[in-house]
Structure formats: C-alpha cells, structure tokens
Specification:
Layout (H helix, E strand, L loop, with lengths): L8 H14 L3 E4 L4 H13 L3 E3 L9 E3 L13 E3 L4 H4 L8 H12 L7 E9 L8 E7 L2 H10 L1 E2 L1 H7 L6 E6 L23 E5 L4 E5 L4 H4 L2 H17 L2 E3 L2 E6 L5 E7 L6 H5 L9 E6 L3 E5 L5 E4 L4 E5 L5 H10 L5 E3 L2 E3 L4 E2 L11 E2 L5 E2 L17 E5 L16 E9 L9 E3 L3 H9 L2 E3 L12 E3 L12 H11 L10 E5 L19 H10 L6 E4 L2 E4 L12 H7 L4 H15 L9 H15 L1
Helix pairs in contact: 2-5, 11-16, 15-16
C-alpha cells in the first residue's frame, strides 16, 4: 500500500508532512505480512547488522548486536512533556512541550536521508477489541519493523479497523543517523550520541516522539511508551487501568478457573511467575501476558483484562530451563536475539543459561570470548540487559483466552518486591483502600552491589510503575482509589502482597520460589472465594501456618517465620514511608493513604 492509498485523511496528511520534514528516500506502509517481515530481516542481514543463527538449532532466529551506547531504556532521556510541570509529578523527567518539540523538530529535520520511512499501523491488543488502542509509528529502522511485527498486531488489518476517521496515537521514531549518498550502515548499529537521545511523551496531545535510539522500549513505541506512559493517561481520563502487570490463568484440581494479575519491580520474578509450572499436584497455570495488562469494567461490574502485546520482549541472562522452562521453549524458533553471545556453531549463550560456555564465543560486542570461571572480573559474554523477542503464540503454556477481545475477568491483584525481611510471604489487604496503600509502598531492598545508595535501603517502586506512569503518581494513586468506587467489593479483585525473597539469619532464602509459588497462588485462589485458613493481623489477613501446603525443605518453623508479623520491622517500614516516601508527592498524595498509614500504626501499637 502507498501513502496515497491511505483512507484516513488525517493520517495521510501527517505521514506526508513527516516525510517532508525527515526527508527519507522512500516511504512504505507496512502490511504486516510474513513476506514483509522476511524482507526486513534480509535487509538487516545484508547490511551486516544481523546474523542468521543455525537453522538446525534455532530455526528462523536472528542475532543482533547494538551499539554499546544503546543497550537499554534511557530513563534519564525519557520525558513526560505535560503542559504543566506538576502534572508530570516528582517521579518523571519533565520538559516544556513547546521547547522539547522545537529541539526535536530540529533533530528530525533530514534525519531519514538515505533511508526508508516505514509507516507501521499497529494495534495494542486484539484487533477490534473494545479495550485495544491503535498507534501508528513512523520509523527508519527495519529492526524496529521486524520487532513490532512480533510485539504488536501490525498492518492492513489495523488500518481496516481505523477506517477513515478513527483515533490513533501518532509516534515518530528515527535512529538519528542519516546516510550520505551511497553510504550504508555496513555492520555498525545506527544511533545518535546519548546527549541526542530523546524518548518523549506528550500526554495532552497523545503523541510519542523518539529520537536517537534503535533499541527496545526506546524504539518499539507500542511497548512502554504507548502501552504504559500514554495509556496510563488515557486510562485515567476514561476510567480504566493500564498497568505494568502479568496476567495468568490458574485452574484448581476441580477445574475451577481464575485470572490473576501481578505487578513486580524488575528482578522480582515477574516473567517466571507468568509462565510458572506448578509443583502443587492437580493445579495448572497458563500465561495470558507477561508484562502489561489493560483492564476495563464489564457490564457485570468486574474488571476484564487484555494483554495488549503479541510477543515477549524478555531479558535473556538468568533465563534457563529451571528458572523458566516455558520461556526457553518459547524462544527456540522465530526469535530475534539482541546482545546475547554466539557460539561457534551459531547458537546463543548467556550467563545463567544453565550450562558453561561451549568453547569460544563471540560476545555481545563482537569480540572473541572464552569463559574464565576463575576470573571474577571477566566482563560478561552477553549484555546483562540482552533480550529475546518471541511470539507469545509459541509459549507452550499460553492460555486459549490470551487473545480474547473481551478480556478475562480478574479475581486478584498481586504486588510484591524483593524483601529479605519484614514483609511476609503473602498478605491479603483488608480493603480496596488498604490494597492501594500496599501497592503504593512496593519496593525492593537495595543490595551492597548498588553503589549509589546505602545497603538495606528500600527503593520504592509504587505499583511497579515508577518509570512508566505518564502523569503525577499522586494523581495515579487517586485514580486507583476512584476505580475502587466504580464497583462493589464483591466484584472488585482482591489485593495481595507477596514476597518470595525472605531470608534466614544465614542469608539463605527460606522459600524456594519458582514452581513452588503455586502453593501461595492456591491460597490466594481460595481466598478469592472467602475460603482457606486465615488470621487477621495488624498488617492484613495472613494464612494460618497450615493453610499453605509446604514444599520439601520448608519446615513448620520456616512457615511460622515466613508468616509472622514483625511488629518492630513494620514500625520501621511505616516510619520510612511517612518520612521518606509519601512526602515526595506533597499535597497530591490522597488523604486516604495517610489515613491507612495511621490505621496500621495504631494496630501495630495495640
């Protein structure tokens, strides 16, 4: 399809104006076909940016190595450019939208010379779903086109739903590396210097402008940019939830089904939980989504969730058959690998894959690498944020309902962080407001490996949304409280706080985690129906010590430790929230949350 064939007048005008500014050699409207995906991969391989992997070991898989300056989300260069600074809030980088647009327009001018501008119409969520949203991304990166093919629903079918006057989120993206006549990338990953990288969001006009990065969430603008930062603003204005949450389906031995979402900061086992293989006999867990959930109220007053993504964009290091067998199965074919190491027979390897490096490797920088287990200073072969992009349909545990346009009804929300002490294994909120309080104080304890803060400090990441909320988080907490008033307590999801990371005095994990987390999920499942052994405590409703089926190696004393209320620890926790966390939000923090804080303080003193 050509630009002239676009039926949407506003879209056609925008594409033409954008092309006039960025000056690409050609403009192509993406149709979403397999032939188009194959064409993008061939372009990238021919330009020496991609390497086709061994078809016998990794059929349909390609490896890319990015520039060392372009390996992760650049939070310091990510902006919420709301009209008023207070609307961005204390946890976002703010820029005046007029000034930012002027700066970026200058950068975009001529930025696509020597390249093709690709017009990517994409749907976040099943095409035509009442919960889905449409974006259109303009990009000069075939790598982005290929990844978007996997991560979203792309092409002509989206344009059909958009029609002649439908709403869409316009997204500009350029790698910021125009080519001179006859010049090619010749194996050098195209991007701009760090000081010219911008990932900018304009909440009032629902626009995303990204410049200078070709990697991950900086460049795949459907992912964090639309699905969370802009969608969270849409959700606030339209009365729904756009959350950084997994969605899983759990079936008990009697064949009863519930759907659960969960929000966890990074390195807290979110993807592993989404693809969990239960150790509890008779229970089944299936994956609906591993990263993002959009939820709207159905006519029955319940929240229904879709996974707006179509693929997994996962961190490779640490992923192995023991930690996440289903992920390993999902990435055996038709997968884009970025910044992992390559073996001599063109397979992939990374730290934590479950076995030693098989001989000489090519590391993520393109250099020869031989494992030296005695050298603690040896740089890793795979970048710590190296990634795989794989179709969700390839996951062996994918739920039949994962593409249901109506979404799945949510029975429980889980919040959790990495906390070696104080926080019990599982804790049920006493009410919706108490649950929002729990979500607002989510955090993980910082280890000695983090040089910028004192070990033992709690790094708060409310609702695991700190880098992703598109507006003031004080207003975000208020929105959650308002969502709780839109239905009745019996229809709203129950809210739980979980912590797989409690340690004993010897510094060893008390709870084995991974598949054994199904034992905690079973208690949560029952609590959604008011069943299961439970006891009221000052901090919430906890399981009785015998309510969770203990895994091998966890004693009765261990369970008591995992489920005890550490009164002094909780007093310190509440004091930290009162003194260091809540004051950040000033008068935007809802008074109900201070009320919850005071209520817990009184219960702890009683």
């Amino acid at each position: 399809m050509t630009v002239e064939q676009l039926k949407h007048g506003r879209l056609k005008k925008w594409v033409k104006e954008s092309a006039a500014l960025m000056a690409p050699d050609a403009v192509e409207v993406c149709d979403g076909s397999k032939a188009e995906y194959d064409k993008m991969i061939k372009l990238l391989v021919d330009s020496k940016l991609g390497t086709v992997l061994n078809p016998e070991k990794k059929p349909g898989c390609v490896l890319f190595r990015s520039d060392p300056s372009d390996v992760a989300r650049v939070e310091a260069r990510t902006y919420i450019a709301s009209e008023k600074q207070e609307d961005a809030g204390p946890t976002n980088n703010w820029c005046d939208p007029k000034e930012l647009k002027a700066t970026m327009t200058d950068l975009y001018r001529g930025s696509m010379k020597g390249r093709t501008m690709y017009v990517i119409p994409y749907s976040m969520g099943p095409v035509g779903s009442g919960i889905a949203k449409i974006g259109v991304q303009l990009t000069d990166s075939p790598y982005v086109v290929a990844n978007m093919h996997i991560m979203a629903r792309v092409g002509t079918k989206v344009l059909d739903v958009l029609g002649a006057d439908g709403e869409y989120v316009p997204c500009w993206h350029s790698v910021g590396k125009p080519l001179a006549p006859g010049e090619s990338d010749d194996g050098k990953w195209p991007c701009a210097p760090i000081e010219q990288k911008y990932i900018s969001h304009f909440p009032e006009t629902r626009e995303i402008w990204s410049y200078g990065s070709g990697y991950g969430g900086n460049a795949l603008l459907g992912k964090k940019c639309l699905a969370l930062r802009i969608a969270s603003v849409l959700a606030r204005d339209e009365g729904w939830l756009a959350e950084h949450m997994l969605i899983l389906k759990i079936t008990n031995p009697q064949g009863e089904v519930k759907y659960i979402t969960g929000a966890f900061p990074s390195a807290c086992g979110k993807t592993n939980l989404a693809m969990l293989i239960p150790t509890l006999p008779g229970w089944k867990v299936e994956t609906v989504g591993d990263d993002i959930a959009w939820m709207k109220f159905g006519k029955d007053g319940r929240l229904y969730a879709i996974n707006p993504e179509a693929g997994f964009f996962g961190v490779a290091p640490g992923t192995n058959d023991e930690s996440n067998h289903n992920a390993m199965e999902s990435i055996k074919k038709n997968t884009i690998y970025t910044n992992v190491a390559m073996t001599e027979d063109k397979d992939v390897w990374w730290e934590g894959i479950g076995y030693d490096a098989p001989g000489k490797l090519i590391d993520w920088k393109g250099n020869e690498w031989v494992q030296d287990k005695g050298n603690k200073e040896q740089p890793p072969a795979a970048h710590p944020n190296s990634r795989f992009t794989a179709p969700a349909s390839q996951c062996p545990a994918i739920a039949d309902e994962w593409q249901d346009p109506n979404g799945v009804p949510i029975s429980a929300f889980l919040f959790g962080g990495r906390r070696p002490k104080t926080i019990p294994l599982v804790n049920e909120a006493k009410s919706w407001v108490h649950g929002v309080f729990m979500g607002s104080i989510v955090g993980s304890e910082v280890t000695a490996a983090a040089l910028d803060v004192k070990a033992g400090t709690i790094r708060r990441d409310p609702f695991a949304m700190l880098p992703f909320c598109g507006y003031n988080m004080g207003d975000y907490f208020k929105h959650w409280l308002e969502i709780g008033q839109k239905s009745t307590p019996d229809k709203l999801p129950k809210i739980f706080f979980v912590n797989w990371f409690r340690k004993n005095e010897a510094g060893k994990f008390i709870w084995p985690g991974y598949g054994d987390n199904s034992r905690v999920l079973a208690w949560i499942f029952d609590r959604c129906d008011g069943k299961g052994g439970a006891v009221e405590t000052p901090i919430g409703t906890l399981p009785t010590p015998d309510a969770i089926v203990r895994p091998d190696g966890v004693s009765e004393a261990d369970m008591k430790e995992l489920l005890k209320v550490d009164i002094e620890g909780w007093k310190a926790e509440i004091a930290d929230v009162r003194e260091n966390h809540y004051p950040k939000f000033g008068d935007k923090l809802p008074k109900e949350l201070y009320g919850e804080l005071e209520a817990i303080e009184k219960r702890l003193e009683a």
